[in-house]
Amino acid sequence: MRTYTYTRIFFCAFLLCLMQACSSILGLPSDPERSTMGELTPSTAELRNLPLPNEKIVIGVYKFRDQTGQYKPSENGNNWSTAVPQGTTTILIKALEDSRWFIPIERENIANLLNERQIIRSTRQEYMKDADKNSQSLPPLLYAGILLEGGVISYDSNTMTGGLGARYFGIGASTQYRQDRITIYLRAVSTLNGEILKTVYTSKTILSTSVNGSFFRYIDTERLLEAEVGLTQNEPVQLAVTEAIEKAVRSLIIEGTRDKIWGKASENLNGYQALINDYNKEQEANVGRTVGNKFPENYRQKMSVFASVEAQKIKDDYVNAKMNVGGKVGVKYFISPNFNIEASGSYFTLENENIIKRNYLVPELNLEFLLFPKYRLSPYIYGGAGAMFSKYKPQYKCQVGGGLEFMIGNNTAIRASSQYDIGFKDNWEGMVNGKRKDQALRFAIGINFYLGNK
């Protein structure tokens, strides 16, 4: 009995050590961390590396705040924490400083500044009565030639979600992801006449991922071993907001230089033409971008020809059905971006080992639906009818199938598919036995070549 107790204690200690080791391997925090400098985003370096202006521009920001009213999504009841940080004005002012293009002036808490200046004047008047009046006066406040307005106007939760998992005999693993999206609008307003000089907007995705593994197994009649491991990582919203704001400030500077709204500050600047050219290319490429940072293009043309290698297996009245290799060639004509009519011919072998073997030429006509015609990778489904010709009486059938197509070039795609053939009669091999119609299962991999240029 005592030995059994020692064994349990040893096993528990071993599991604790193993968990600690796994935590170190996975990079999980196990000790308190000291405070550090704030992290930099990729846009921070781009902002700081901009060429300097001829002269800095005095700029004011009264408020640049969350205009979404969005709360953090929660699966367990209400969550009254806001989804967007409430200090976005401060983040914008820091981005303006980092650009080295602007002189930001205090406007968010202007009342505090004016009160403090009034205290200074009162104190000087009280204790410096005999001093020169000029020495008692304060220098005037800077005034802004341009005001920045706007804010965080959108926070979209779960724009993309998904996951993948598998379990076999109590051993399983899974992964999940969720993508949110934040959108920033920023505009420059002239204090001279109130004209809106320029408006830009940027967006940034926020990614959350989770990886989990589990083990659940009976190792004996009354012994159950269960283990779990998991790791979740959420992209900080504050860093996402910072990067979007920094991107907006950089865009504002480059567009303002291109459109000559900064006056003398941007005249004859060296190095900016290359930045403007790159920015224009980014804008042109961005025309076709959709949610999820995807750039769909019309890869597929009106017509295509294809060829594939097939593995075929009959399901008929005899036993020991054998899988054989055949082929298919055909042509497709697109009646719309999603639908096409397919005409094809294939070589099909029906065989039951040591019983019957028969070869067929099979013309088919299908209507195919392509789910994402403007993306490189797209699933598709199809259905239609066909005939099976040999030296015997022709047989007729219908078929359904589906698969994936991936564009490897501007005109070339690889296709993988499976197809199920259903006979109208039970006599493909010349025998009728039972109520089930003859059937066949076919797997194919091939190439699809689109005719013409984009």
UniProtKB/TrEMBL annotation:
Signal peptide boundaries: 1-27
InterPro entries registered for this protein in UniProt: Curli_assmbl/transp-comp_CsgG (IPR005534), OMP/PagP_B-barrel (IPR011250)
Any Pfam family hit: CsgG
A GO cellular component entry from the record: outer membrane-bounded periplasmic space
The UniProt record lists the keyword Transferase: no
Gene3D superfamilies reported in the protein's UniProt record: 2.40.160.20, ABC-type transport auxiliary lipoprotein component
Keyword tags: Cell membrane, Lipoprotein, Membrane, Palmitate, Signal
PROSITE patterns for this protein: PROKAR_LIPOPROTEIN
Keyword Cell membrane in record: yes
UniProt name for this protein: Curli production assembly/transport component CsgG
Taxonomic path: Bacteria, Pseudomonadati, Bacteroidota, Flavobacteriia, Flavobacteriales
